[in-house]
Amino acid sequence: MASFVTNYILLMIYSFLGWLCESLLVTAMQRKAVNSGFLNGPICPIYGFGAMFVILLLQPVQSYPILVFILGVVLTSALEYFTSWIMEVLFHTRWWDYSQFFLNLNGRICLLFSMMFGIMSIFVLYVLNPQIQGILMLIPYSAQCLMAAALFMAFLIDLLSSLDELKAYDQDIRKFENAVQELKIKLNEYAPAFSQLELREQFNGFMELKDERINEVKQHLNARYEKLANQEGFHSRLKNAFPQMKISSQKLNTISSYLKERQK
Count of domains in the chain? Predict the structure, then answer.
């Protein structure tokens, strides 16, 4: 059985391979280079943990490929669902949304990608992992320890810097929330009605309203939205990496329900 050090190196390898595959896929879809993933560095830990769950938990049943496929689907789907939920709780943002896919669960997981993860579980357990572990066995344990330490330090630095930038992003979201709350107060006075659509559609429709009394408020809020949406650097990278990213905010949800009530 592989040591803790070897398993950590495997975790980093699969995190990198997952990042590479996803970045290539998103790059092809958007037709421009995209650094996919939550972190700045070339790593997506969710893929690393998914691969390690499959390797460590399914080895006892690897004589049964069909069972490996089924359990691979269950394990990776559970991991993806939990990751989506916990990241939304922590950062008030939904990073991906499968609502438009057939047989999805709350937009967090869907049948298509779950089946793909099941196939990848087969590939990792029977094909890829034996090759990678064979290579690692050729590396002395002391060298593996140094490699693991270097990888951990790089990961820690990347994680802390990404969290710091995300904190600034969250502060921008909160500023926008406050602007929305101010708008709600103004709307209570002027009471224009528009349908409950996606956030961007709401403001596109809102900007078409002719009531001069609320032009100043409209322009102020639209300017804040555009500033937030067009931020460069980390914010811009997140938009490219997670094109379906949605702000999950009680205040932003409140205004939709509020406007719906005003239409009655």
Answer: 2
